[in-house]
Design a protein that fits this description.
Length: about 90
């Protein structure tokens, strides 16, 4: 899976399937207010899981990231940023 999240545009590619979207202004304002690069990395993971998670039933998901804050959030299951915590609850 490859993700790209720039400005208000989100793009996710998985096994030849591609999803592109523009975020609604209310969601975008939450992300900008959080001022967290981890959120920009984490948000596409949540969207991909919501879209394609059913295909991953009984499979182990391995995520590689170059952003240590994102890795820490995934490993610990929580963050100091409320919107990331609400997204994390969507995954568990």
């Amino acid at each position: 899976m490859y993700t790209l999240f720039r400005a208000e545009n989100l793009s996710i590619t998985l096994d030849g399937m591609r999803m592109q979207a523009s975020l609604p202004q209310n969601k975008l304002s939450y992300i900008r207010e959080a001022k967290s690069t981890a959120l920009y990395k984490f948000y596409p993971i949540v969207i991909a899981c919501l879209l394609w998670g059913i295909r991953w039933t009984r499979k182990q998901i391995v995520v590689f990231y170059d952003n240590s804050a994102t890795v820490e959030i995934i490993n610990e299951g929580c963050s100091k940023i409320p919107i990331i915590n609400s997204l994390m609850r969507r995954l568990t």
